[in-house]
Amino acid sequence: MKKRKVFLGFFILLLFLLCACGRVSGPEEDRLIRVGFSQLGSESDWRAANTKSMTAALSEQNGFELLFDNAKQKQENQLLAIRNFIQEEVDYIVLAPIMESGWEDVLQEAKEAEIPVILVDRQISAEDEELYSCWVGSDFRAEGDMAVQWLEEELVRSGKAGEPLRILHIRGTDGATAQIGRTAALESAVRRHPEWEIAGVLPGEYTEAKSYELVRDFLKTDRDIDVIYSENDNMCFGAMRALEEAGLSYGTDGQIMLISFDAAQHALQLCLEGKINACMECNPLHGPRVADLIRQMERGEQPEKQNFVKETLFRADTLTEDILQKREY
Ligand code: AHR
């Protein structure tokens, strides 16, 4: 009888210790899934919406314990964050890579630690596909192709097809999948249209401030622009400010057509007002998608390796207040 009491006491103590350490709060399925998320930065409206979606979906309420790191636009910070997640023995690592190259070593370390890695938004260029479990994000090349197709159709509609066209190209961060895809689409279109010319390529790094400075300086020596192809909304806002200061008009009633990518709320409002001619959607709401991929893996399922999100193009002439109201970001 005494032995049984001692054993019971020991068992209760063990249970108490397990609960107190926080990892186990009841049955195994109630355990929080520990996720380390390396976000590349906070350069744009898109990124803010993406961070919000990720942190909301990977919340305690939803069964996750999230370790969040903002790399402030530096790959070396992302490498540090991932190594820290490995040290912390998280259950999953989620990586939004700033660029495609340079991930082999750190992801090999995650693989050796048997921590599955989920890529979100941009992709990586590593040859070994086993370095990550799956990816979810946009088809950036398709986005670029849709934007360029809109331009081709718009030129036909306005009777300007076949006429010389000078395009100012504001690029995103070099080597990022979003930049590679959108740039490739434009370059391919320029090869198809000998009458189109790239007037300049500006490395805007996806930020409004950088784009403003570059466009402002560019316009000091070249004002003969027909189109600005801006690889995100924030760089488009920077360009708009520089155009206004230079006394150049833009949008549906102006001299310069503006094409932007992301289609976040503020840009769509400007599109509705006719200030941006076309906004190509890039959907940032990946939080629930990543949470779903993790749940699939928790059930022992292997999700699709590549998970593309469907997107659409918004045009100033067909966008309505009603469409804008229904948008989530
Ligand atoms: O990778 C997605 C791109 O990154 C978005 O177009 C841009 O706004 C963001 O910074």
Any overview of this molecule?
This protein has 329 residues and is an alpha/beta fold. It has two domains: 32-138 and 284-298, Response regulator (Rossmann fold, 3-Layer(aba) Sandwich), CATH 3.40.50; 140-282 and 315-325, 3-Layer(aba) Sandwich (Rossmann fold). The protein is built from eleven helices and twelve strands. It has helices at residues 2-20, 45-57, 75-87, 104-112, 140-157, 177-192, 208-218, 233-245, 265-272, 287-298, 321-326; strands at 33-39, 64-70, 92-95, 117-120, 134-137, 165-171, 196-203, 227-230, 257-262, 278-281, 306-308, 313-315. Strand 1 (33-39), helix 2 and strand 2 (64-70) form a beta-alpha-beta unit. Bound molecules: alpha-L-arabinofuranose. Alpha-L-arabinofuranose binds at residues 43-44, 46-47, 121-122, 176, 178, 206, 232, 261-262, 282.
What is this entry, summarized?
Helix content is 42%, strand content 19%. The protein has 329 residues and is an alpha/beta fold.
* Amount of beta strand: 15-25%
Low-confidence stretches: 14-26
For this structure, what is the CATH homologous superfamily of the largest domain?
Response regulator
How far the N terminus sits from the C terminus, by CA atoms, comes to 65 Å
Total beta strands: 12
Derived from helix and strand composition plus strand pairing, the structural class reads alpha/beta
Helix tally equals 11
